[in-house]
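Hi W., the 6-O-phosphono-beta-D-galactopyranose complex you wanted:
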Amino acid sequence: MEKKQFPAGFLWGGATAANQFEGGWNEGGKGWSVADCARSHLDTDVKDYAKQNEVLMKDVEEAMAHPEDTVHYPKRHGSDFYHHYKEDIALLGEMGFKVFRFSIAWSRIYPNGDDEKPNEEGLKFYDNVIAELKKYHIEPLITISHYEPPLHLALEYNCWYNRRTIGFFMNFVHTTVDRYKDDVHYWLTFNEVDSMIRHPYTTGGLIRDRFKDHNWDEVIFQSMHHQFVASALATKYIHEVSDAKVGCMLTKLTYYPYSCRPEDVLEAQQRMRATYCYSDTQVFGEYPSYLLARFRNEGIELKMEPDDLKIMKAYPVDFISFSYYSSSCVAKNTEGLQTTAGNTVTAIKNPYLKASEWGWQSDPTGLRISLVDLYDRYRKPLFIVENGLGEKEELVPDGKGSYTVNDDAHIAYYKGHIKAMYDAVHEDGVDLMGYTSWACIDLVSESTKQMSKRYGFIYVDCDDYGNGTYNRYKKKSFDFYKEVIATNGASVLNEDE
Ligand code: BGP
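Structure:
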């Protein structure tokens, strides 16, 4: 029988984001970003997302008053990629990565966001990163904005709520695209564009109590509207100056009805649409009718310039990228039902799935369902740019004078998801460009700001308080993934035959 494997040219790799990975937060001329003021939640329930995502002015002032504090603001140190990039990329090269997803810290290039000129030292850092990637024939996949707006834009302009931020963002886009266009073939405009709703501070630079007199939902959708226009303008520019492909990036929240009661099925359908409305807007280039209905019914009035809708229509994305970690259930009547956390959401627990320590329920079949749904809906290539499992781990001697982690749970998670995506490609005819696991190297978690929620193939010796050597160690999954890439998936897909 013919060996199963992924189509030739499948882009295997891993993903990171500057705000959680890069560190060097006050070096090389970098300015403050909103992420540098994101406080860790070591003292609260890590499953209680609602409280964690509301950032007030006093929180930002407190953070700014303590520029030396990297304990409570762990994104300031991240995994210190800023000083380890050569070593890290060499390890990715050793694993045979075809693609590496990372983001460019906006405040490293424009320290305040509204500066006249870019920071040359910041640009040089990414020149170096890209040069290293080239050495190992690794394609860069760049997220232009991943939770990193310059803090100054939040304080001076209310960031994405203010239309002027489109212009500031486009300066950043012009500078980075001009600089790196010869070496970059894949760009994503905004990470999880929908996350404005769940963490408006990190995504949109929106500080809750600066909008006391406003309709908060209107603030969020207005800010998102500015991002939709900015994304279309960025796509236009990238297409004008290069052959690169541009993708949107969606948090793929997959909901099942808790029962076959029609009301539960309807509830699940509504929730799924509430997720799809963002990719619908970026792929079809227009607001879907059901989102417009919501605006109408809730009295949300967006301020638009005459050409906004034309711009959105004229420059939709080329492909759809998304994150997928787990699935959840929903019911019309939730009384007496157990809940659990997912990626910045809380929903009904699925009795058939196992949850991680953070409550996220692993569900490889849900990935196949998600791929099929997205492809049927859009008929454009898909790219899984985040998928992984956060686990607590321990370093143990590797018997060769160094250390390792026996991360069997990661390996099991990847096996299940790789098989599911193969079925989606092979059986269901989905056009899938590639797969970048989250995160290929341990980094600070977004939702809880913990280092101990470890995703990587590579362990970073640093704890939740920032203590450690920041040395890198290969986990057991390092060789596993190396083999997956070398065999284009065959090592997993044929293991039972
Ligand atoms: C996605 C984000 C990432 C990320 C990941 C895992 O939503 O794009 O930035 O970190 O989820 O979430 P967490 O870090 O909270 O475990």
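The longest helix spans residues 216-241.

W.
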